[in-house]
């Protein structure tokens, strides 16, 4: 324990030491020892570890010689056990935790008493937990994410709201994957596709070749993507068909 944790409650110190010991065990001993250590843990101590980044780091970082992958597995298993002892802590974790991956675990596992917590994280959160929440939040909150700077959130927004409502926004989005989705869902010869002849990203351009109106097809011949043999064959085929 560092000097900064001298005033820590004895029960919390004991829990952290116990978890440090368990975290250093191999797979064969890990599960059984974890079950032995946790029954006497206090809810407030578990909550502290799951909410405070410094306490979490003290408990899990540098306490094992496992590989990074194995360490991640161990810490997630421990967190899962901690949450299972007091599921009601989930609401506090979503509202207060500094540890994003734990908030993701709470959301993905539905470990909360009030489902409206999902909306709160989607609207006011950050990091990957906000992305997870956006998949499940209300449509009302989802609409507030329109045009969000996080491309993952924008993609979820477009996927859930759908191209019927926001096709034009998808076609003009700065993320190539979203533009590609928009082009793929657009009607054949959709007028707005004619504005995309300068598209430089490979995936949306390939989709565009199949969808743009025949009259605008020659304008694609100056695009650098035409050097790709597969794309040039698609254009040649359409030219030969005359449509």
Poorly predicted parts: none
Major sheet summary line? none
Q: Report Rg.
A: 26 Å
Number of helices: 15
**What is the number of E strands?**
0
Please give the structural blueprint.
Blueprint: H1 10-23, H2 27-37, H3 43-51, H4 53-60, H5 68-85, H6 89-96, H7 100-109, H8 117-124, H9 127-134, H10 139-143, H11 151-161, H12 163-171, H13 176-185, H14 202-211, H15 229-241
Helix pairs in contact: 1-2, 1-3, 1-4, 3-4, 3-6, 7-9, 8-9, 12-13, 13-14
Give a brief rundown of this model.
Helices cover 63% and strands 0% of the residues. It is mainly α and 243 residues long.
Describe the structure using short key phrases:
about 65% helix, about 240 residues, single chain, mainly alpha
